[in-house]
Amino acid sequence: AGLFSWHPLLMALAFSFLMTEALLIFSPETSLLRSFSRKVKVRVHWVLQLLALLCALLGLGIITYNKHLNGKAHFVTWHGLTGLLTVLYASGQCAGGVLLLYPKLMKNWTLAKLKLYHATSGLVGYLLGCASLMLGMCSLWFTTSVTSVSWYLAMLCPLLTSLVIMNQVSNAYLYRKRSQH
């Protein structure tokens, strides 16, 4: 269980903490960096997202290696498949974020359209990460380790944070739309 235990820790750190914080930075209501410039918020967002991706890649590498050591098949459960898709998606989303730093690379796209697509696809990736975490909480390992009320409380964490993030992203979008008119 020593090597394996790093997998849930790193994935929870990546998707429940770092990515959540990276998305909340842009919230006009809940951001700790509310008074900072957009440029600072973007840089902090980038750092947190990069750390989240590194934790996710390390978590994926650890579980892959652990399965290999134990002669177990990998990517055969809904959690494994969703987790792989989530890490690949997060990698692509980070690459897409580079386009926002260098929008001239996308000559036929406006910066506003790039931001909208990045935010929307980022929300999809975040929800995918939450779904993967919840599927992991349905695994035999988790359900034998965490029981009764604790299991339900653990399951509420990604569910509630995903609702908060969806609300914050939609509010930030509506706030920006209203301030443009």
What is the CATH architecture descriptor? Up-down Bundle
List the helices and strands in order: HHHHHH
- Shape from CA axes? globular
- Determine the structural class based on helices, strands and strand pairing: mainly alpha
What is the percent of helical residues?
over 70%
State the major sheet. Answer: none
Q: Looking at CATH, which topology would you report?
A: Four Helix Bundle (Hemerythrin (Met), subunit A)
CATH class: Mainly Alpha
Number of strands: 0
Query: Hey, roughly how much beta strand do the residues contain?
Result: under 5%
Radius of gyration: 18 Å
First-to-last CA distance:
56 Å
Instruction: Name the poorly predicted regions.
Output: none
The count of helical stretches stands at 6
Mean model confidence by pLDDT? 91
Domains, number: 1
